[in-house]
Amino acid sequence: MVDEERFLARLARLELDMAELVKLSGLEVDQLKSEVGTRWAAERGLHVVIEGILDLGAHVLGSEFSVHGLTYRDTAEKMVEKGVVTVSSFPRIAAFRNILVHEYVDLDVQIIADLLAGSLDDLSTCADDLRRRAWEKP
């Protein structure tokens, strides 16, 4: 069973983080290269939002489907497979979390710009899917 209080508190934080990340949409590669603080904000925002979705998804997978102990990649794939999120591209987006965490020194700034330009709606949809799940209690 999902710990509803914990789930909703984490979801509220995810939604706040998502709102901050949306403010960074449209940043250009040159700006990300030249403004270290802005790049850090974008990197951290993407990391926190992606990981928040994964954490909530893992909670649902464990509570509702008895699926535990998955890698982040497997969690993202299983979230789509089980209908926890409806964004079929979420595993591809979620894979960027590992790059942010482990390969940040050699990170291609173009990828950050592309995610900010093209994946924020998908991340928002994932958060919406999790919010709906909290209220619909399948």
What descriptive keywords fit this protein?
7 helices, 0% strand, 138 residues, mainly alpha, globular, Four Helix Bundle (Hemerythrin (Met), subunit A)
How many helices?
A: 7
DSSP strand count: 0
Separation of termini? Answer: 11 Å
The mean pLDDT is: 92
Uncertain segments are none
Specify the biggest β-sheet.
none
Percent of residues in helices: over 70%
- Indicate the CATH class: Mainly Alpha
Shape by Cα distribution: globular
CATH architecture: Up-down Bundle
Topology:
Elements: H1 4-22, H2 29-34, H3 36-65, H4 72-81, H5 90-102, H6 109-118, H7 120-136
Quick take:
By secondary structure, the protein is mainly alpha-helical. It has a single domain, classed as bsu32300-like (Four Helix Bundle (Hemerythrin (Met), subunit A)), CATH 1.20.120. 76% of the residues lie in helices and 0% in strands.
